[in-house]
Design a protein that fits this description.
Structural class: alpha/beta
Shape: elongated
Number of domains: 3
Low-confidence stretches: 272-279
Distance between the termini: 78 Å
Number of strands: 7
Strand content: 15-25%
Length: 279
Amino acid sequence: MLQALYSKLSDVNWKSKFKACAVHLAISLVIFIVLLYLIVFEWYPFPFYSTDGGIQGMRLVFFIDMVLGPTLTFVVFRIGKASLKFDLAVIAIMQFLALGWGVWTIYHEHPVAVVFADDRFHPIPAYLLPEAGITLSDLKKYDSKLPAKIFVKLPDENDSSARAKLFKELYRNRKPLFLSGERYQKINDQNFQKILSKSINIDDYLKQEYIKDQSAAWLNVYTQFKAENTRPASKLAYIAFYARHGRFIVVLDRDSQEFVDVLDIIPPQSTQTTIKANP
């Protein structure tokens, strides 16, 4: 039996198989590089690549484009095979359809806005825009570039009645606050200060007793960030970031309003009741 198997394997033209696989791989590599650029720099720019599905999307594209197609070509390719052209055409069509589905899914779910609501940022994927009552073109009103940074205006914190009424209405309609498109505002100096007022005093937070099981690991993350960061500590703010693939703390530059880094640290539930905000 082993001898028959060895004889059959010896008849295979391995050189031609590897050559066909290499050609397919080279073509796939060009496609992969193009998609890599789109995903990393256009659809999931920092910090969304690691928090909102960019990594998962890239793995999907890599498997379909760089693994599945070339492997199938390696398996079916044999010089002189009567159905070779048909087999290769079927593989190409399968790979094209699978890749098209994967790319459409990645694009459909890519964040087009990041909304600050109450005390945290929420990335908004493209498919959720209709639930906020806005379109992709509407985002230009709030920011000149995507993902657009948006602020949700709330009743004054001292007006408990108005805030209670709003949250009761949202609960009744089963609508999250960050999708309240009628309350969207462009981030200006005034409401940016409101964002900063919700920043987390991360040094105090990491000393809290109720997070002692995670605090050591989170402290390592924070310590590494401080070692690599070149900006003055006074120029940084730490804001809760509720992304698609977890909750994080995003580091915000107080001057440029740009994201500096995203820390794999789960933020406190509320900056108002648990951790004193930074001044």
